[in-house]
């Protein structure tokens, strides 16, 4: 059953299906245009299709909205979405805006927006869910209300940033890579507002998934103290790569503001060439003694915040057990641990066939070793045979892939041809020319 009124925040992440029931993507936002005397009109949806590509779906191509899913006619233009002048994203740009009541009773913040179908294929903003400012009590949340568009007017003070709290709540379930893509789609000013309100650890995770140029831009918009806190939460190798892109003076200043232990790891990584094992490695592998048991090793790799590649094996060394460690003894793969009783000592399970690489080993050689022996990580030692880190498969992929791999477009003509052919088979329709934009045809 198709709903005639729906709140936009509930549409985020909803699956989009074609008439045959095949999933084509998921909703990321709703696009509206403002009108002089009437409520904003919905022009379409921003849909994420496979490959993390965001495309425009005209609201005229939507045949049903309801039960957590959206049904389309099957005709979707797969050209990458580009926002036009006058178009506004509801989730990314409207939520968090201030509005002032026309009756003079004060102002409130938009927390959600409902859209309503006026006639088939014609939707417009109907109601706003708003919240008034907090009361005197520190536990007060502020009174909420449903108002129509005509009962309020938007109020923006010069120089005042738009709140991103509601937007962040809407995208709270997104994985870091997906949130990074979402941020990169936002206007630059809005992107910085969202970055300012993300927690340090969440922003660190997101920055690790962005191209270096975008990392530098966002970090440049943060104060030095906040930037240092975010760098503290990043993986040392990612933090080192980011600091290397900054002007030398600011990079050194941020290192001084970071936690001493984190800064020490980053400085060590910066001392290695970017195309060597030392430049690619992370300094935070799982390190244990030879007397540690299988039970202890498995407990360490179960940590929720541990990247999967680092959990594939534990490194066995002599004390101390932080990089640079005592003499490196070897690695124990987690699959081998699963085959032995919990009390077995890890020193007896070391993989004798895996040799570590030196910190100055070339990235090309590290790549060859990982591929030749089907490994997801390889230990890195210094000239004194101390463990200084591990290079993981994702480190190597980041090095080998082109700089723009996160946003590298597919062959759009081929994708569009396949989508059009599929739509013809599904609906029996004739493809619409894409050399111009007509009302409701979904082309941009």
UniProtKB/TrEMBL annotation:
This is CBS domain-containing protein. PROSITE patterns: CBS. InterPro entries: CBS_dom (IPR000644), CBS_dom_sf (IPR046342), Mg_transptr_MgtE_intracell_dom (IPR006668), MgtE_N_sf (IPR038076), MgtE_transporter (IPR006669), PRC-brl_dom (IPR027275), PRC_barrel-like_sf (IPR011033), SH3_actinomycetes (IPR058838). It comes from Agromyces salentinus. The keyword Iron does not apply. Residues 407-444 are annotated as: Disordered. Pfam families: CBS, MgtE_N, PRC, SH3_actinomycetes. Keywords: CBS domain. PANTHER family: MAGNESIUM TRANSPORTER MGTE. Residues 350-410 form the CBS domain. The keyword Isomerase does not apply.
